[in-house]
Amino acid sequence: MRELQTTLYDNRGYTDENVLYKHRLIDPVQLSKNITFLYGKDSDMFPLLTNTEGQGFTKSIKPKLLNDTQYEWSVMGRMVHTSVVFGLQNAANVKPGLGFTPFGVIFEDDRFIPQYGAYSPDGLHQVRIQSKEKLANGKWLYEMILQGSNVNEFVDLGNFISGKSWVMTVPTVAASKSDGNASNSMSPGKMSNQFGFNRFSKNIAGNVANKITVFEFDTESGGKTNLWMPFEMKLFEIDRRILLEHDLWFSTYNRDANGQITLFDKETGEPIPRGAGIKEILTYGGNYDTYAAPTLTISKLNSVVDRIFANRIDKQPMELVLYTGAGGRRAFNQALQDDANSRQLFYALSEKIIGGGKTGYMTYGNYFDQFRTIDGYILTIRECQMFNQGLMAELDRKNGNMINNFPAFSYNMVFIDHSMTDDGERNVQLVGEAGREIITGVYKGMSPLPAAWGAIGESKLISTRKDVASYEVMVSQGIVMKNWTTSFWLAPSL
Fold first, then answer.
1. What's the rounded mean pLDDT across residues 442-453?
2. 351 compared with 213, residue with greater pLDDT
3. What is the maximum alpha-carbon separation in the chain?
């Protein structure tokens, strides 16, 4: 599918039979996918929609409860082997463990198991867990004993500061007459979000210009066919995707602690659900940080990337994309150049940076668009116009929030993991409420209907007395990040 031209309607060449809305793509869900794919190839104003809906990575989901808007999905993280200490049982014991004397330690949870070992937070002491007991305050008391051979060894008191984490190690038993123990298990956790609903209306007055856009499609037989749609509809379809794209990134979840929606329509009193977008999901999960734009250090970049890759638990190839704007792209490139210069790597590459053109003029410049980690993972940078010209960038320009002549928002760097998961699905998916993913209809007024709208079918026509016709679209959408820990938002500090 590709756009061929914009021209005036001529019924000798563009009949009602070859209008886009009357083709087999009349299904609004399929039609939306194809339009997103088409314009996503030429525009970076809606990158998330392009990489989900436009690529077919969408899913219809039923709400978890009837007449509700919430949905759930399973997440599986790493098995947790650490436990957080609360303090020593006996604060007067200044040398716990000395002379292989058992000592009590209070922890926040019951993750540790008798017979298993544990390492102290400083990594210098190994103990065996002899027993555990639940206390009246809900915390857990563990009896521990040092495992080594040094009778003078004791555990430094700094290891018992509240909030410090110990890690459980292998269980040890006697060679004979040993008893069994237990084991921890982990089931997939649940994450929840809710659908947001968006409605768009496109009005066409009776004196609308008859301009159309022509598309070329591949047919099932291997040939080509041309279909068309009104030019104003093309602009409408693009603009509503720009707005929907922004919502996927910035929407905020609006249920309070009691599970009640906090936003209501003024006229009807009906609740208006809002789901969490990418930024809120990552911020809530702690995968959010700032940097002093326009300067990005290689150490900051490494810390973000290392954190992302460390959270992978499967063996699928990782597709990590850094979405950013012109500002972020320059900060990214400068960080790598500064690192390369500091290690004198550019001296050997000078001929790749400075060269001669065919006309005798000099050319200068080669710029980084990938970053390879020491582990062999590759991060690909993608500059998107959404970060330069989208709603937030427009807001920055109007309010003077500029950094080196770029809107501050263009310095945001969002690392998104688009990998396939072990269950064969993409990590990031666009979802809609089953049966209400996209609903379309036409208000038929005194104004003559455009041929493209008439092709939608009589069953979808509704009436109004006004001298205007209106194309109505209602969309339900939400986002699923099956493993949000492998994505990250790095924002400029303002």
1. 63
2. 213
3. 100
The rounded mean pLDDT for the chain is: 79
pLDDT of 193 reads 85
CA distance 392 to 245: 12
Mean pLDDT of 321-336: 92
Nearest to 112 by CA among 86, 148, 150: 86
Average pLDDT over residues 25-40: 64
Cβ neighbour number for residue 206 with a 10 Å cutoff: 11
Kindly indicate the confidence band of residue 63, based on its pLDDT and cuts at 50, 70 and 90: confident
Q: What is the bridge-based pairing of β-strands 2-8 and 354-356?
A: unpaired
Q: In terms of Cα–Cα distance, which of 185, 193, 194, 195 is closest to 76?
A: 185
Residue 291 has pLDDT above 70, yes or no: yes
Burial of 425 (0-12, 13-18, 19+ CB in 10 A): middle
Region 261-288 average pLDDT: 90
Each domain of the chain, given as residue ranges in start order, spans: 1-75+191-494, 82-171
- Close Cβ partners of 321 (under 8 Å, ≥ 6 residues apart): 379, 380, 381, 382, 415, 416, 418
pLDDT at 103: 95
Decide if 135 contacts 141 (C-beta within 8 A): yes
* pLDDT, position 185: 47
| Predicted confidence band of residue 187 (pLDDT cuts 50, 70, 90) | very low
Cis omega (within 30 of 0) for bond into 47: no
What's the alpha-carbon Rg for the chain, to the nearest Å? 30
User: What is the C-alpha to C-alpha distance for residues 248 and 241, in angstroms, rounded to an integer?
Assistant: 10
- Tokens representing 362? 């000099």
Instruction: Work out the number of other CB atoms within 10 angstroms of the CB of residue 27.
Output: 12
CA-to-CA distance for 144 and 125, rounded, in angstroms?
11
Better pLDDT: 292 or 494: 292
The CA distance from 472 to 355, in Å, is: 55
What integer pLDDT is reported at residue 204 of this predicted model?
A: 66
For 455, phi then psi, to 5°, come to -70, -10
